[in-house]
Amino acid sequence: MSKSVFTYPIRQRSKITWLWMLIVVALVLLLLRRQHRVDQDIADSEAPTPTPFNRTLWDAKSIPRKFVYPKCPASTSSKRNVDITTSLKKTLDIPDGPPPGKKELCSMSFEDLELYYHTYLSTVQSPCKRSVRIGNTLDGGWDVCGEEARLERNSCLVYSFGIQFDFSFDDEIASVFGCEVHSFDPSMHQEDHRRSQSVFFHATGIADYSGVSNDMAGWKMRTYQAIREELQHVSRTPDVIKMDIEGWEWNALPDMLKSSYLSGVKQLLVEFHSNTDSHVKEYWVHKLSILRDLYFEGYRVFWVGRNMMCTYTSPVLHRLLYGCYEVSFVRVN
Question: Residue 295 contacts by C-beta under 8 Å, 6 or more apart in sequence?
Fold first, then answer.
């Protein structure tokens, strides 16, 4: 009998054994890779990397100085169970123009103030014939008014506060309009540097004081006027100021508004943040008063975006509301 008759089954068994060994090795490698991903996810959750979607967590290590809200005269507290239909109907009667003065604001209920704020930031007040999206289509990009009178090409100056590793707006407005751009963010752990021919990065944050943030972050903070002085821009006014600074805007803007520091700034792009940190009506009186001051400074809303990832539940209306509005203003006087 031929020898191959006996060796053929042995060879076949050897091939099957090797095949099973390869399958086992592949499964082990797959399990090890999966475990590595799990370990990496755990590490990431313990030390989050800065992305647009965990920004609140990342920035929690440094917060604005607590603001003392202007007190309103004592009045009866708002109801805690409000008819949302009735409240929403009231917003339809809100007149055009600026929010009312402090006395009238203080006479309003908590829920009326809260809805007034959301209505005001959702109302377009001045059209722009050529609105241009600069930067990312989603989070990180901003609408600017591309009219020549509002953004003169090749001679414009832009201050961009709050980068969080996303330079899409800064790079694009520099390349499309030929602007000189100064980008500010103290949270990125990067030193001051020149990013490109027209974009300059500064590890500095804007606030209502100049110094080091009094918290674990220890960031370099400067007022708007101090920043202009450090950059030797006292005789130059930014054409565009973009501001996405996670709540610091409510401290920085009043300082920028005093003494007409914003005079000459043609466009103001701000993400306004609100939540239920305070359940008192003065919380909304403070914010509406700043929006009133911006109106009388000549700023009108021409574009509004709502951040779908940023919401909160109203303590009175018991309804989910937007906590972040990206608002683009143009100066009309």
Answer: 97, 98, 99
